[in-house]
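Forum > Structural Biology > Help requests

Title: Can anyone predict the 3D structure of AB hydrolase-1 domain-containing protein?

Hi all, first post here. I have the sequence for AB hydrolase-1 domain-containing protein but no way to get a structure on my laptop. I'd be grateful if someone could post the structure tokens.
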Amino acid sequence: MEVAPLLAARGYRVIVPHLRGHGTTGFLSPGTFRNAQQSVIALDIIALLNALKIEKAVFGGFDWGSRTADIIAALWPERCKALVSVTGYLITNREKNKLPLPPSAEWAWWYQYYFATERGAQGFEEYRHDFAKLIWRNVSPTWNFDDATFDRTAAAFDNPDDVPIVVHNYRWRLGLAKGDPRYDRLEARLAAAPGIAVPTITLDGELDPFTPAGDGAAYRDKFTGPYDHRTLKGIGHNVPQEAPEAFAEAVLDVDRF
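Reply #1:
Sure, ran it for you. Structure tokens for AB hydrolase-1 domain-containing protein below:
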């Protein structure tokens, strides 16, 4: 089971968009800057809401999805009814990203340093499916997914913009690539770590190597509205697929806050 049918069975309209550079997304011009800084991905989702005439929605996500949902909840709370955010508060602060982490934490991020090199970009282009499957296994050590499960997601990587978007995102986070100056004001607001006042449930996977599971204390002060935190035992990074029932339950619960 996955999250979408669980929520649809409870009467929800569920939209699972591809982020730019993935799936069926595309740019209108080959000369357009393949920009993946955090604010433009959030603006893509705002544009989607506008196109679908959705004024307000419950947002839930993990990884890039958590970051994007956090940004919308922080900057456009009128569009966010409630929030489920895996790994808590993920809005990027590029100044803090200049500071080293303990070696065990840096090890989990090995690929972002790989992407900082041209060798890494070429290697990702040539081996993108093998690369993604390796990451899945490393960050979700107890998830015994089969090839069919992986292949359904991997189809979204077969996009000519996948590699430039992913590589730009990680280089931008590390300050190795520039964003678009048109979004400087938004990025300045995000760099100030704005609070999130909408009802929120944060989720940690106990075995996620990126962020040690706990009680959410590291980011608790960023959520100023109704709030709950849950740690999922035996679960790794990909919470929606590893624990779809728990993720769907969080969406149902936060919608009632």
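The CA atoms of residues 47 and 53 lie 10 Å apart. The mean pLDDT is 96.
Shout if anything looks off.
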